[in-house]
Amino acid sequence: MDFDLPPELVAYLAELDRFIEATIKPLEESDDNVRFFDHRREWARTDFENGGLPRHDWEELLSRAVKLADEAGYWRFSAPAAYGGKDGSNLWMAVIRDHLAARGLGLHNDLQNEHSIVGNFPFVAMFEAFGTDAQKKEFITGGFDKSRWVAFGLTEPDHGSDATHMETRAVRETRDGVPGWRIDGEKMWTTGMHIATHCATFARTSGEAGAARGISCFLVPSDTPGLKVEEYLWTFNMPTDHPRVSFENCWVPDDALFGPPDNGLAVAQSFVHQNRIRQAASSLGAATYCIEQSVRYARTRKPFGEELARNQAIQFPLVELASQVEMLRLLIRKTAWEMDRLPHKEVEHTLSDRISMCNYWANRLVCQAADRAMQVHGGIGYSRHKPFEHIYRHHRRYRITEGSEEIQMRKVAGYLFGYMGPRRELFRNL
After folding, report:
1. What is the pTM of this model?
2. Residue spans of the chain under pLDDT 50
3. By C-alpha distance, which of 165, 145, 352, 150 is closest to 258?
4. With the CA atoms of 153, 154, 160 and 164 taken in that order, what torsion angle do they form, in degrees rounded to the nearest 10?
5. pLDDT value at residue 30
6. Are 364 and 417 found together in one domain?
7. Which structural domain, as residue segments, surrounds residue 292?
């Protein structure tokens, strides 16, 4: 077994570092753009008088960085070559995301906005697997040229992790001679609706509450009559782009149906696996950053005339975190490598438990590492002059939003005990 990274991947990481230093850093340091990353970051990013939404100048800066990265050939790395990408694999993306997050906060990779000079596009595989030819052309191409932005409307106010009991309904209805669907219901945490052109809206179209079948997905244009953003939910880490959205007598034609009717949850599952492994890698990189910064501080801080690092009370917690980081890094890379060896639709049935292991543990680990970094740094670590409080507040969300860690542990248990997945046959006769 060879655990060395491919030489061409190592070279690509160095190339990305050179691009950051030559192109992205100067932009970050110009026109006081550093205000978005130093102790002023939350105020600079948040329009507190406009529902807590991101300020326009903040989103404009992110767009400028993406444009530079796209022109340099990096942003679309993970996308298929047919869309201007380089067919970047899950393994390469995991390593790249880990590497970029380990550099710390910056315009090169701001995870609060899912922003990076190397973009993450799980929507491409989702549309490739489930979209019609017309939908692929419109939403994949439109996604890259920024003419299309799809929000994700799955979670509901009274039904968070349990999508099977969703109360949003879609019923067949013909209007002006055109067959279609009327949608009524409400969604929560529909991220990005302030800029979205469409909302991928999941609704029950048949079956009983609690059944996995009978749920369908619709691509609802955001200006459709009856679709309304009710409020933006203010969160632990601001700004917010997470609204509550209502659908009342909201009608779409048949061609808005996305994926197989009554099997829309397969569309949702298609999205999460690529996203979870890459997000886990980002959390791993951020945890590494917190540990490394703590080690450096402990070596230079000298209370009572001796390095802080000499104290075992400082050493041992960081040793445990560093050990967990190393073990998790191997699991993430192995899982990403295995994902690359399977057809996209097979990942759910074969590797979903491993992906959940990587994701829930990485998200927990980065919170522990950020908390420990605050403790090691003392008062300055608690302040906003260090990035640890921001890292903690941001990554704490992923223990809930990327599929709560309890739901992901339940998935792992289902595979472990043979209720689902490859081990089902092992326990069939018990």
Report:
1. 0.94
2. none
3. 150
4. 150
5. 96
6. yes
7. 266-422
348-355 contacts at long range (C-beta below 8 A, 24 or more positions apart): 348/266, 348/269, 348/270, 348/273, 349/421, 349/422, 350/421, 350/422, 351/273, 352/269, 352/273, 352/411, 352/415, 352/421, 353/411, 353/412, 353/414, 353/415, 353/416, 353/421, 355/273, 355/276, 355/277, 355/280
% of the chain with per-residue pLDDT over 90: 85
- 277 and 413, same domain (yes or no): yes
pLDDT of residue 299: 96
Beta bridge partners of 219: 200
- For residues 254 and 289, membership in a common domain is answered with no
Residues 252 and 288 in one domain: no
Could you give the CA distance from residue 214 to residue 212 in angstroms, rounded to a whole number? 7
For position 184, what pLDDT does the model report? 98
231 and 303 share a domain? no
Buried b / exposed e over 209-235, threshold 16 CB at 10 Å, is eeeebbbbbbbbebebeebebeebeeb
Residues 30-60 pLDDT 10s: 999 999 999 999 999 999 999 999 999 999 9
d(CA 151, CA 159): 18
Rounded Cα gap, residues 239 and 234, in angstroms: 8
Task: Determine the pLDDT at residue 343.
Answer: 84
Q: Which amino acid is at 318?
A: L
Which of 258, 279, 309 is the last residue in one of the domains?
A: 258
